[in-house]
Amino acid sequence: MSTRRAHLEITGMSCSTCSGSVEDAVGDLEGVASASANYATDEGTVEYDPVETSLAEIYDAIADAGYEAASETETLTVMGMSCSTCSGTVEDAVTDLPGVVRADVNFASDEARVEYNPNDVSLSEIVDAIEKSGYEPVRDELEESQGASQRERAVEKELRRQRKLVIGGGLLTVPFVPMMIDMLFGFVDVASPVPMAIAHPPGWLEFVLATALMATLGKEFIVGAWRAFSNNRRANMDTLVAVGTSAGYVYSTGVLVGAITGGFYFEAVAFILWFITLGNWLEVRSKARAGSALRELLEMEADEATVVRDGEERQVPLEDVEPGDVLKVRPGEKIPTDGVVREGQSAVDESMLTGESVPVEKGEGDEVVGSTINENGVLLVEATKVGSETAIQQIVERVKEAQSRQPEIQRLVDRVSAYFVPAVIVNAVVWSVLWFLFPETLYGASAALGSWIPVLEPVGGGPVVGGVPVFEFSVVVLASALLIACPCALGLATPAATMVGSTLSATNGVLFKGGDVLEQVRGIDTVVFDKTGTLTHGEMTLTDLELVGERTATDGGTVTGLERREDLESFVLGAAATAESGSEHPIARAIVDGATDRDVEIGEVSEFENVPGHGVRAETDRGSVLIGRRKLLEDAGIDTEPAEETLIRLEREGKTAMPVAVDGRLVGVLAVADEVRESATETVAALRERGTEVVMLTGDNERTAAAVARAVGIDPDNVRAEVLPEDKADHVEALQNDGSRVMMVGDGVNDAPALTTAQVGVAIGSGTDVAIESADVTLMRDDPADVLKAVRISEATISKVRQNLFWAFIYNTTLIPIASLGLLNPALAGLAMAASSVSVMTNSLAFARYDPHEDYRLAVTKPLSWLRGN
C-alpha cells in the first residue's frame, strides 16, 4: 500500500522546541517516512505507511509529547447490522479511509463512534463508506421540527419494518402449523389429532407459501449475506440463514418437480424464517429498551425557562437561554440549565443525577445542575452552562463514549467471531458429506445418542432404517448445522451487558469512560485516596492561633510597641491572611476567611510566591511574611524549635499547623482543620472487608495524616504523608511496580498526574475539570462511598458479560454437534437460534434492576427478589 499524508492542526506549541518535540515523537514511530511541525501556524504534516503504523498511533504519540492534534468525533446510527461480523465490516470500511483516527462500532447499540481529522476526510465520505459496505448510516442529531433524534426515528422505523415482517410472515406460516403439530406427535409415537388432509396439504400450496416467505422474509437474509460477501468476502449470521433455508427450499422444489426423490421441507423453511425474524424483532425492541434510559435522561430537560431581564420575567425556549442569564425557578419546577444560585434557598432533588433520593440544600453561591427539580422555595439562578455544555448532556455523551469502548474480553470474542461463521459453514458441509458417504456408521452413533435424548431423534427415522434417502438427510444435516449456530448471541453478550451497565452507572452518579474501564475496575486490589477534599470535605476552617515567644515578637522590628495579646494575635493573623490572600489553596482561603470573621484587616501584597507543597512567601505592608511547613522557614534561616511543642500538639489533634514568620522572626502558629466525610469510615471499612488495600496520600505532615487515618480506619503503614504534588504519581507508580492494581481517587489539579498514572483514576464530583478530564471514572457526588458503587457496578457488569458468554458458548458448543449428528429438525434449529440471542438481551436487561448500594455477589444469591426489583 502506498504511503499516506496527514495534514494536522496541532495545539499547544509555543516555540521551535515544541515543534521539534512533536517531530521527534512522531518520527520515532515505525512506518513514518517524514514528520514536520510548524509552531507558527500550529500545523503539521506526516507521511506514513498505514500498514506499519496507524493515524491513531500518530495522534497518541503527539498526545504523549504533551500536545494535541485536532480531530472531530461523530456518533452515527448504523442500521442493518445483524451480528458482530457486520460491525467489524463497518469498522474496517471506516478505518480504511485516510484521515480516520479510530472507529468503534457497537452492534448492540447500532452505533458507530468515529474520530477523524477533518482536514483529510469529511463526514460525508465516512457516511458514503458505510453505505458502500452495505449498511444504513444515520447521523445522530436533533431536528428542531420534530424534536426527536434521527437515531430514534431510525430505530422506530426499523421496529415498524420488523413488526410488519413478523405479522406478514406469521400469516404465511400459519398454514404450516397443523403439519408441525402432526410431525411433533409423530416424534413421540402418538396418534396426531390433526386430520391427514390438513396436516399434509398439496405440495404446490406449500411451494407457493414458502416462495412468498423466501421473497419477503428470506430476502432480508439473502441480501445481507450477499452484501457481506461482495463487500468484504465475509460470512455472517445472514449467510447461515440464507444458505440453510435456500438448501431446504431448493431441495423441496426439486422434489416437487420430480428432479429428485424425497420429502418436502417447505414447512421447515417457513418456520425457520419466521422464528428468526421474530427473534430479530424482539432483539431490536430489546436494544431500544437498553438505550431508553439515556433518552429518558434527555427528556428530563426543561422545555422553557423563566428569564429575568431588566426586572421583567419572560418565558423563553430552553435553546434561547445564554450564559449569564438570570433564571427564576419556582417550587416544583425543573432547573433549566447548569448555574449558580444568586438569591434564595431551597432543597433540590438531584436523584436523576446522583441516584440519591434525599434532596440537597442549596443557597446563595451553590452550584445547581440543569434538569434537577426545585423542591421548595424560589431560586434565582445565573446560567453558567447551556446546550451541549450542561452536565446532563455531558453525561449522555460520556455514556455513549463508554458504550463505544468495549472491555478486553470483547476483543477475544471478536477474534473468535471472525472465524466462527466460516468454521460453522465448514463443519456443516463436512458433516453433510460424511452423512452422504457413511450413513450407516453415523446413523448408528446418532441413534445411540437419540436413545438418551428422546426429543432429538433423527428426522424421519434416519437415512437407512426410516427409509429417508441419504441425499435428503445430508441436506437436512447441512441446514440444521448451519441454522443452530448463533453468532448473534456471542456478538451481543458483551456490548449488551456493558450498554446496560454504563447506563445504570450514569443514573447512579458514576460515569465510566469506557467498557474497558468497567473491566479494569473489577480487578483493582489497591485504592489510593487523596486526603483533602476526598476523605475530608476539603473545606478548611481556621481553628487555632498560637503566639510563639511573645517577648521575641515584641522586640524591635515591625511588631515593636504591641503589648496587648489581642493586638499581637491580630497582627500575626493579619500578616498571615495578607500573605495568603493571593492564593486559591483551601488552606489559604481558610486563613483569609478566619481573619475576615474576626474583623482583622487584610493588607496589601507587593510580591507573592507560592512554593508548591511548602507554603507561601510574600512582601506585604506588614513586612516580609513566611507561612507554611517548617522546612520553608528553616530554608530561610529561621529556627522553628520554639514552636515545635505547639506544632506537635496541634498535629496530633488532626489539624494542619503552620508556623508564621514576619521579617525573619517566628511570631506564631496557625492551625486549620478539615472535617472527615461522614461516609469515609464506612467506605474504607467496606473496601478492607472486600480484601482491598487502602492507602492515603497527603501533602500534610505525618501527625495530621496519622490522625485522619485513625479516624477513617486506614492502616498507619499505608499512609504517605508530606507528599509533594509532583510526587503523587511516583507513589502510585511505585505501588503498581510492586504488582498492585491501583485505583487513585482524588479531586484536585495536583491529583491529575496521579489519576493518569493509576490503572484507574477516579475524580469525585467536586473536583476540577482538569481532574475529571484526567480520570477514567467520575463520581457526580462529593462522596467517597460512590467508589464502592463504581466497584460494584464494574463487578456486576463483567459478571453479566461472563454469564452471557457462558450461555452463548454452551448453546453453540452443545447444539452444533447435536445438529451435526442429525438429531435436530431444521425448524427447531431456527427457533433455537432466535431464542439464544433474545435470551442474551433479556438477561442483560434484567441487570438494569440491580441496586449498586448492594454487593452484587450477595444480590445474585437471591435472583427472584432481585428480578422483581425488591
From TrEMBL:
Coiled coil feature spans: none
Gene3D superfamilies: 3.30.70.100, Calcium-transporting ATPase, cytoplasmic domain N, Calcium-transporting ATPase, cytoplasmic transduction domain A, HAD superfamily/HAD-like
Keyword terms, alphabetized: ATP-binding, Cell membrane, Copper, Copper transport, Ion transport, Magnesium, Membrane, Metal-binding, Nucleotide-binding, Repeat, Translocase, Transmembrane, Transmembrane helix, Transport
GO biological process, one term: copper ion homeostasis
GO MF entries: ATP binding; ATP hydrolysis activity; copper ion binding; P-type divalent copper transporter activity
Pfam families: E1-E2_ATPase, HMA, Hydrolase
Matching InterPro entries: ATPase_P-typ_cyto_dom_N, ATPase_P-typ_P_site, ATPase_P-typ_TM_dom_sf, ATPase_P-typ_transduc_dom_A_sf, ATPase_P-type_domA, HAD-like_sf, HAD_sf, Heavy-metal-associated_CS
Subcellular location: Cell membrane
Domain (HMA) ranges: 4-70, 72-138
Residues spanning the membrane: 165-187, 207-228, 240-258, 264-282, 416-438, 473-493
Main location: membrane
GO cellular component: plasma membrane
Membrane topology: Multi-pass membrane protein
Domain of life: Archaea
Family classification: Belongs to the cation transport ATPase (P-type) (TC 3.A.3) family. Type IB subfamily.
Protein name in UniProt: ATPase P
